[in-house]
């Protein structure tokens, strides 16, 4: 099993990152480089979270071996026996051989740092650029990131000057490397505590509120009102942008040098707008630079950027509106079925997507009623209590992990108790659950936050390239300080425990933070205590109230604006529900008519075809007979026709009735 656990987790984490990226990104429409870069960033961050417990168990076993080597011992197969106490030091099932983990962490860490500080910011600017060539996009990205990179060089220079001025340090490559790691981790820890303080309170509270049907339905109505406003704004913005594109397309003719840029912009427009503009492009006039003023390539690049953003926003709001409607209809069905006497869940609308037959077989209407109306609220309450307990333990440990005598951090107590008995399964499970809960609190906040529509992770393949790359940047910057904070909570970091023991492989590649004493002994220890204040502020919704005062409508039960938006959203949902009911009634009537009269129409149609065939054959027979009968009198008939034409009197035409159009006169005649 040596190294097998590492290989299994590497493969599992890859498919996990691929699944999440498929849920939020769009593999068909987005650029391959964007997909690959985001997938690599997410994959490396998730990999650190899943592999770190294996590093902890391997480090505990290596400490045991060092203790054995320092005392008389006897070796026996897969474990080592201490001579004085006859204690057995078992090798963990997930043991990773020496030399693998340091190389693995070094590759993972520096690759993630290269992504978050150099490649992903550049790709962000490249993806949002409206340039029409690769060279133009690269130039725009370099200009936009000049200030960005200069700021980080200034921060690194400040750390470098501090170490150079301090006479206690001799600058070496390892110390410079440690300064860079400390600067990156300091920035990440500053943001980590802010996100963690929000997630520790909001995740248990959201699950507790998930058991309240009325609460969820009212919040869905509130979201519907806000989303309708955003949807209308997106449609209006798209119309304005398309009007500008139409004017540019009409002003720049087919043989203008910038016509290729206009065609590139038109390809990014929705199909209905392309067809509408294409019908007006029937003029092939030559352009004249002296008579007309044409837009520059820079202004076209700006318009191209606006088109990409407005189309993506419009498409996202349309999809989110349909998803929100389905959610609102389902919550209304749950509220209606709670008082059902038959205890069978009845849907107002049938699912538009075909359901899996296996799920449909086991998840019957009766099972669905018991789960949705009876069991699910209690399950959410129990889960909320468990998550709240974890949050309290995390907050307590964040405030007391610096204390080593006595050990007050509960996570450190759990790990040290398991270390005495060398219960590696318990150690790995405890470490995994701890770091997994911390990651959920931080990453879920990253997925929830929204920065003025410029950064917004939307599910169902509606996240744009800029937001995907930005999320990869945040993950790569938050994960290393998150893992260091976890090692500090469990006292596996020698900087916190103040013990001369073998460090974990992950800590060893970070270097000794003693190079910067004010960071190691000050910021890393006391700044995480700020999580208490942030949790209190989140519990009392201080941030929500501040945003509401600034004009950003937030869901608050005691606000008049919230009540108005709930009523507006309820009316919007009711209107959409009536509209969908009329559509389904129309489809049902057409289906019933087809089932009732479809066969009769087919039989009538077949009889009509058969009758027409008989009549046509009968007419052909009579025609042949009349042709043979009257062939001899053909000459006389022709003479009679000529005489009738000669005897005809001329008709009297009025002047007003004469039509100048020869086609209409022929048709009238």
Structural overview:
- By secondary structure, the protein is mainly α.
- The chain is built from 22 helices and five strands.
- It has helices at 4-24, 32-69, 100-128, 134-165, 173-210, 213-251, 259-268, 271-278, 297-337, 357-362, 365-400, 410-421, 424-448, 465-489, 494-497, 505-510, 517-526, 531-539, 542-549, 560-629, 634-647, 662-668, and strands at residues 73-76, 79-82, 88-90, 450-451, 455-456.
- The strands form two sheets. Strands 1-2-3 form a three-stranded antiparallel β-sheet, with helices on one face. It has a two-stranded antiparallel sheet with strand order 4-5.
- A hairpin with a 2-residue loop joins strand 1 and strand 2 (79-82).
- Helix 5 (173-210) packs across helix 13, helix 7 packs parallel to helix 9 (297-337) and helix 12 runs antiparallel to helix 13.
- The longest helix is centred in the last third of the chain and has 70 residues, at 560-629.
- The protein starts with a helix and ends with a helix.
- The relative contact order is 0.11.
- The chain crosses the membrane at residues 6-21, 33-52, 103-126, 146-165, 177-201, 378-396, 425-446, 466-489, 523-542.
- InterPro entries: GPCR-associated_LMBR1, LMBR1-like_membr_prot.
- It is a multi-pass membrane protein.
């Amino acid at each position: 099993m040596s190294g097998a656990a590492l290989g299994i987790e590497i493969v599992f984490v890859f498919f996990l990152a691929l699944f999440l990226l498929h849920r939020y990104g769009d593999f068909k429409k987005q650029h391959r480089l964007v997909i690959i870069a985001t997938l690599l960033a997410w994959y490396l961050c998730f990999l650190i979270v899943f592999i770190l417990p294996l590093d902890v168990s391997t480090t505990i076993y290596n400490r045991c071996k060092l203790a054995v080597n320092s005392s008389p011992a006897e070796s026996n197969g897969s474990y080592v026996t201490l001579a004085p106490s006859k204690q057995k030091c078992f090798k963990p099932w997930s043991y990773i051989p020496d030399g693998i983990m340091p190389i693995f962490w070094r590759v993972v860490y520096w690759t993630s740092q290269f992504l978050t500080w150099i490649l992903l910011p550049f790709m962000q600017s490249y993806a949002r650029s409206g340039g029409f060539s690769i060279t133009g996009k690269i130039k725009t990205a370099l200009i936009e990131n000049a200030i960005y990179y200069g700021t980080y060089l200034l921060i690194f220079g400040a750390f470098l000057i501090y170490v150079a001025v301090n006479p206690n340090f001799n600058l070496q490559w390892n110390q410079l490397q440690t300064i860079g790691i400390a600067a990156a981790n300091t920035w990440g820890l500053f943001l980590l505590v802010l996100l963690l303080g929000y997630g520790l309170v909001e995740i248990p509270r959201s699950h507790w509120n998930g058991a309240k049907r009325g609460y969820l339905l009212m919040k869905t109505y509130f979201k519907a009102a806000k989303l309708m406003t955003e949807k209308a704004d997106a449609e209006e913005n798209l119309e304005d942008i398309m009007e500008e594109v139409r004017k540019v397309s009409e002003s720049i003719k087919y043989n203008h040098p910038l016509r290729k840029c206009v065609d590139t912009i038109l390809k990014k427009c929705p199909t209905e707008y392309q067809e509408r503009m294409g019908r007006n492009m029937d003029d092939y006039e030559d352009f004249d630079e002296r008579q007309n003023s044409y837009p520059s390539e820079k202004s076209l690049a700006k318009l191209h950027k606006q088109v990409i953003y407005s189309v993506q926003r419009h498409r996202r709001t349309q999809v989110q509106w349909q998803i929100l409607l389905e959610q609102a209809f389902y919550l209304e069905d749950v509220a209606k079925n709670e008082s059902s006497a038959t205890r069978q869940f009845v849907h107002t609308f049938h699912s538009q997507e075909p359901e899996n037959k296996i799920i449909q077989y086991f998840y019957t209407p009766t099972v669905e009623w018991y789960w949705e109306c009876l069991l699910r609220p209690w399950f959410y309450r129990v889960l909320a209590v468990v998550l709240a307990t974890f949050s309290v333990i995390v907050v307590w440990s964040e405030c007391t992990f610096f204390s080593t005598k006595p050990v007050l951090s509960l996570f450190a107590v759990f790990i040290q108790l398991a270390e005495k008995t060398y219960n590696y399964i318990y150690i790995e499970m405890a470490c995994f659950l701890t770091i997994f809960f911390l990651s959920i609190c931080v990453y879920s906040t990253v997925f929830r936050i929204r920065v003025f529509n410029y950064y917004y992770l939307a599910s169902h393949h509606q996240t744009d390239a800029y937001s995907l790359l930005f999320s990869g940047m945040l993950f790569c910057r938050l994960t290393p300080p998150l893992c260091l904070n976890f090692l500090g909570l469990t006292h596996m970091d020698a900087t916190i425990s103040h013990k001369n023991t073998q460090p974990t492989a992950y800590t060893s590649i970070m270097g000794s933070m003693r190079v910067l004493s004010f960071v190691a002994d000050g910021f890393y220890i006391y700044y995480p205590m700020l999580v208490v204040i942030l949790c209190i502020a989140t519990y009392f919704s201080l941030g929500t109230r501040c945003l509401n005062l600034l004009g950003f409508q937030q869901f608050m039960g005691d606000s008049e604006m919230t009540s108005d938006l709930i009523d507006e959203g309820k009316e919007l949902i009711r209107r959409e529900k009536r509209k969908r009911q009329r559509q389904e009634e129309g489809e049902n009537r057409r289906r019933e008519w087809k089932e009732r009269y479809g066969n009769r129409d087919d039989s009538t149609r077949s009889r009509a075809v058969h009758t027409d065939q008989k009549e046509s054959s009968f007419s052909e027979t009579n025609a042949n007979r009349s042709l043979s009968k009257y062939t001899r009198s053909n000459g006389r008939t022709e003479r009679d026709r000529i005489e009738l034409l000669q005897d005809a009197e001329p008709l009297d035409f009025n002047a007003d009735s004469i039509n100048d159009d020869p086609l209409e006169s022929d048709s009238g005649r």
